[in-house]
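<discrete_fold_record>
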Amino acid sequence: MSQSRANILNSIREVISTTERINNFKSCSNNDLSDVYIKTNDSLELVFAQEFTKINGKFVFCENISEFNENIQLLIKEYALDSVYCIDSNIQKLLENAGIPYLSSEEDFLGLNVAVTSCESLIARTGSVLVSSRQASGRKLNVYPNIHIVISLSKNLVYDIKDAMDKLQTECTNLPSQITLITGPSRTADIEKTLVLGAHGPKELYVFLIKF
């Protein structure tokens, strides 16, 4: 037998052996996924903040609406923004209350730099934001702007992805046509394996969490 053929057969045997070992592991059904991850006694707010900031997200915790008003005003001032883009009526009310001008017409969409949206859930374990096409912001506001600001109440915090999906299923007769997990700003390492933020979507992602 040639050496090259022997090498191929050895590789196949190694793969088969590995597969057998994997198949011997206890299968994880939807009901035992909680055993896979190490639980923590920390609050969901703290876990989300830690995981979200690890992936270059910018987290702002607000004890109440007054604190939210102050923090969003500081951010708008920091970026010297004249306005933001928002089409969610509930978020628009928050912006109006904070004195933040916003645009919402289709004509203004192409020129937007900063979009403000809500979310379906915040997932603490992965630091992810779950959004869907049933939201007023639809599909495009999560990917088009340079800066994406998410405003959420603490009641939208869940521990894991399964919890977020369970929550969505209880709120919807039919699941939305698009459900998206956003885990940090858009990123790629396609070119020379150099990490670049904002290549295919927002360069910066903010989450304002209001304790409510």
Residues 44-187+195-210 form a domain with the Rossmann fold fold (CATH 3.40.50.10420). The first helix runs from residue 3 to 23. The chain has one domain: 44-187+195-210.
